[in-house]
Amino acid sequence: MERLNVALLGAGTVGASFLKLLSERRERFQALAADVALTGILVRDPSRERPEWVPKNLLTTDAEAVLRDAEVVVELMGGVGRAFELVEYALGEGIPVITANKHLLAEAWDDLRPYAEDGMLYYEAAVMAGTPAVEILSGALRGNYPLEVHAVLNGTTSYILSRMEAGHSFGEALAEAQAKGYAEADPLFDVAGIDAAHKLAVIARLVADPEFPWEEVRSATRGITGLKAEEVMRAADAGTPIRLVASLYGEGGRWRAAVRPVKVPAGHPLATPGVQNALLFRGDAVGEVVLTGPGAGGVATAGAALADLVRLIEGYPGHSPVPAPVPAPAAPFTALEELG
Ligand code: NAP
Ligand code: HSE
Known about the structure:
Helix content: 25-40%
Structural class: alpha/beta
CATH class of the largest domain: Alpha Beta
Strand order of the largest sheet: 3-2-1-4-5-6
Number of domains: 2
CATH architecture of the largest domain: 2-Layer Sandwich
CATH topology of the largest domain: Dihydrodipicolinate Reductase, domain 2
CATH superfamily of the largest domain: Dihydrodipicolinate Reductase, domain 2
Number of strands: 12
Distance between the termini: 59 Å
Bound molecules: NADP nicotinamide-adenine-dinucleotide phosphate, L-homoserine
Number of helices: 14
Largest sheet: 6 strands, parallel
Order of helices and strands: EHHEEHEHEHHEHEHHHHHHEEEEHE
Low-confidence stretches: none
Mean pLDDT: 96
Radius of gyration: 20 Å
């Protein structure tokens, strides 16, 4: 049995769920000949109330102590400030990192890309939570030339729109999404479309161009804050519910990105209910592939981070971007009905 020292950064919604799943799955790791041992759990406030399964004796604010003997870092704290410092330090020391932090991946990519190319970064949990998208886009679908991707990538906005369709107010629905652990620490990232844009940037680098610039995605991003309740209900009643759709498509031989509210025909895979996400990939060989499942939530997301830990223990490298830019189609394949 090999002991594997894991440093956990963060014990919030996802981190606490990760600890629960880890403790429930000890035997599965032992079957892989790995005895996972935590070096510590980095938090901001060790005295905060947490679920009973979180080992209180391991909570600390001392990052140095947590990282000292780490062989793997699991980063579930979020943001680009302290998280970036710690992730960059670990990678620089040759320690692989598992992360659910799409913000970091999208905006600090220039620094992180060399490590991703070396297979040291695992980030299934960063896109569509527990619904596998990263591994499939960077693996099974790589035999295709990608033609387009359209996806509902933010669970909070889908949840809010679904609830507004049922007559609830924006504020009420957002509060529910926060209580369920779907929203970002700053929910403006969800409702302004930034979180979906972060995930789209990750996808663009997996399928189209390893250097796809974050700025290009950000500047083509609009969220759901401008939508009126009547507009959301009217669209749903007319059989075209509004969803925040992130798209990667070709135009004039260039890859373009966009995140904006779209009217989706009812029954279309992107007309997702509740917190559900969906991703439609069109490739030249396979045609249309749809991935769908939960897109947010502590347990669903923790399951993906745990899968990355299994992947690492089994000796597989992390998720690498597409090795070189892929030619973009001359024109979009699908016309979507965008809102003004
Ligand atoms: P969260 O509930 O806010 O938890 C963040 C954790 O990190 C907390 O334990 C917090 O400590 C700790 N932390 C934050 N900043 C810190 C700092 N500067 N120093 C030390 N500890 C710090 O967030 P979450 O929802 O679990 O999300 C974690 C990550 O997963 C984010 O990158 C998020 O985007 C991503 N993600 C979340 C979901 C979801 O559904 N929630 C899904 C997919 C991906 P305290 O507990 O002491 O405050
Ligand atoms: N806040 C994010 C969402 C969490 O609602 O989709 C999952 O990445």
